[in-house]
Structures are given as structure tokens and as C-alpha cells.
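Practice problem 4.
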């Protein structure tokens, strides 16, 4: 998605440790016009697929998922990150290793909001090592629901997540794939 790549080139900041900061438009301040274009693009990519729910993870996935959901006309469920099981009733939980913080946390969704007849699209901001996405896929699996695919805004193609997840047969559509990035040479996108 050219508009997104241009924006990453203009406003993305490469940090040590393979971290790309996109706080000015994606995951702190949010450019809603850009989010609308992202939502439209996900709809175009998954227009052939039956989807009745979008699943994401707090916090930075929520805004993108909500805007995208308007194009699919479906509800959004976000997995909560927590050390304590403090949401009411029964929950599905899975463990995720955080890429940005390095620690392990639980993601959880109430059993009320994931059902066996659900056909789910996962939406998230980044795909790096794939732990967040696999955690969400595990929740879907526990519920007996169907994972129809994952829409990722920025995939860091030089990390293992995309390859590993596609190898499992999960459809992943990323709007921008970065093949290389460094503070010296900037960002190289896959065509
Ligand atoms: P993974 O679980 O695939 O290793 O990492 C995905 C999660 O880590 C995303 O949900 C995102 O929040 C965070 N993340 C991974 N890489 C980056 C990055 O380069 N920049 C930012 N801002 N977040 C990242």
C-alpha cells in the first residue's frame, strides 16, 4: 500500500533493537484518514472471505481494528493483556512473549465473545516474531472458531513471524513489508 509506505518513510523512526516507531500516525497519535484507507485495503484483500468478527489485541490494534470493522460491518473483540484474570466469567487465555518489552503476558477473551460459529479476521499493527498473532490464533482455536486470515499493517519481513505463520497455512496479508531497516540506511520495503 503505497500511501502507507510513503508515510512510514516520512514519519517512521528506526530505533535500536529492530523497533520501528510510528507513534505520530499509527500507535499513539492516530491518523484516522490513513486508518480509513487501511480499512478499505483490508476489505479489498479479504472481500472473497466470509468474516463475521474481527479480533485484535490491546492497545495499539484496537483503533485500526475498529476503523476496519466499519468496512466489514462486523463487531470487534480485543484480547485483554493481563497478569490477573480480572474479567468476569470464563475466559480463553494464551501466553504471549512481548516483542517490545521482552516479558511474557497473558491474552484473554471472554468465552461469551468467541464462539464455534465465528469466522474471524485478526487485525494487528505489527508482525515481528509472530507471538502476538499466534496467541490470538490459539484463542480462536480454543473457542473452536475459524481463523480466516490476518491483516497486518506493518510486517517486519526480516523477522521470523510472517514466514512461520504462513508455513502453518494461515493467510497473512500485510500492507507494508519491511525487508531491511537500520538507523544508517533507513527502511527498505519489499515490492
Ligand atoms: P510479535 O508478537 O509478532 O513479535 O510482535 C507483534 C507485536 O509487538 C505488535 O502487536 C506490536 O505491538 C509490537 N511490535 C513488534 N515490533 C514492533 C515495532 O517495530 N514497532 C512497534 N511500535 N511495535 C512493534
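Answer key:
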Amino acid at each position: 500500500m503505497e500511501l502507507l509506505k510513503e508515510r512510514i518513510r516520512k514519519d517512521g523512526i528506526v530505533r535500536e533493537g529492530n523497533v520501528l516507531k510510528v507513534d505520530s500516525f499509527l500507535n499513539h497519535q492516530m491518523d484516522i484518514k490513513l486508518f480509513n484507507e487501511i480499512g478499505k485495503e483490508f476489505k479489498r484483500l479479504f472481500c472473497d472471505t466470509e468474516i463475521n468478527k474481527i479480533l485484535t489485541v490491546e492497545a495499539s490494534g484496537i483503533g485500526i481494528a475498529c476503523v476496519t470493522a466499519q468496512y466489514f460491518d462486523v463487531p470487534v473483540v480485543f484480547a485483554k493483556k493481563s497478569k490477573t484474570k480480572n474479567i468476569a466469567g470464563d475466559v480463553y487465555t494464551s501466553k504471549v512473549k512481548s516483542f517490545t518489552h521482552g516479558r511474557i503476558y497473558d491474552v484473554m477473551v471472554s468465552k461469551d465473545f468467541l464462539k464455534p460459529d465465528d469466522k474471524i479476521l485478526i487485525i494487528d499493527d505489527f508482525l515481528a516474531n509472530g507471538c502476538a498473532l499466534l496467541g490470538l490464533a490459539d484463542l480462536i482455536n480454543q473457542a473452536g472458531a475459524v481463523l480466516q486470515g490476518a491483516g497486518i499493517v506493518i510486517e517486519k519481513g526480516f523477522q521470523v513471524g510472517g514466514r512461520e505463520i504462513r508455513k502453518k497455512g494461515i493467510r497473512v496479508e500485510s500492507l507494508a513489508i519491511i525487508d531491511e531497516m537500520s538507523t544508517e540506511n533507513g527502511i527498505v520495503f519489499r515490492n
